[in-house]
Amino acid sequence: MSKIATRPFDSAEYIDTPEAAAAYLEAALEDGDARIITATLGDIARSKGMAMIAERTGLSREALYKSLSKDGNPRLTTLVDVLKAMGLKLSVAVDDAPQTRSRR
User: Fold this and answer.
1) Domain residue ranges in the chain
2) What pTM was estimated for this model as a whole?
3) Mean pLDDT estimate for the chain
4) How many other β-carbons are positioned within 10 Å of the β-carbon of residue 53?
5) Which of 20, 36, 45, 90 is least enclosed, having the fewest CB within 10 Å?
6) What is the DSSP string of the chain?
7) Burial class (CB in 10 A: 0-12, 13-18, 19+), 42
């Protein structure tokens, strides 16, 4: 019986257009988990080239890898700078889900 060679799945290899990046990030934002969102941003940044993102943001590659990992906790300014460097922007929409807390 022959063995099949496999390698780990890397979503960054499949993010090849700005539209694909935006759709991937939008899905992560809909999930609402901050760890998934930062990891997704990391995947998109790797697809674009972390060195290019580092150059455009003025941050080191190491700092980007750390803050955009699943366990990272980037500052808002870092997120905005990274999105801008990738040709993306942040926007807000009304959540149609019922509110769980009332204002007092």
Assistant:
1) 15-85
2) 0.81
3) 90
4) 22
5) 90
6) -PPPP-----GGGG--SHHHHHHHHHHHHHH--HHHHHHHHHHHHHHH-HHHHHHHHT--HHHHHHHTSTT----HHHHHHHHHHTT---------SPPSS---
7) buried
